[in-house]
Specification:
about 190 residues; alpha+beta; two-stranded antiparallel sheet; disordered N terminus
Length: about 190
Amino acid sequence: MGGGKFSKWEIHTLRLRLQWAGTEKKRTPVINDNFRYQHTDSMSVGLIDLENGSIRDLGREIRGEQKEWFKEGLLTGSIKYLYSKRHDQTEYAINKENPPLFSIIRYIKSMFQYHLRGEEDDFEKIRLIVSQGKPLLGTEYARNWLESNTMKMFAGSSDDPGLSHYIEKVGLKDLLREMGVDTVRREITIFG
């Protein structure tokens, strides 16, 4: 999939993940209410069994989505933004470590990195979240995440000039500038 610098799939264990809590490391279950209730996208909620090739769609199994968006996306080359009414109740949202904007950046990064077609109704959801303005980033982790993943969004886009057009159309380019993220330098570096 994709031809960009970051076109490899990420692999994570389902049992426990290492998480920083201040200066302490702790292990937490991957599938918990933070996973269940955060805004995400269809390409972030699927599992492929490497032994037998079977596909599990956690969006449907764990989040209660009506469709198997992950499977459908694999078959059709599409991605779906999965909005959650309970996102603000997750531990990470409460701690200002995962504002809704981060799910938008992950969605756009995946869409352009893997050359996926976004669902039509996603565009308006994304514009609505972006129009809410500058989120409060409560930790250094969140500020670093924004800087790092904005860069990944540009670098992983396979030099697709459509990315610049898309983020401008949804209002993300102006919001990132307002937040002090230099999108112009990244675009010139990546696309120039």
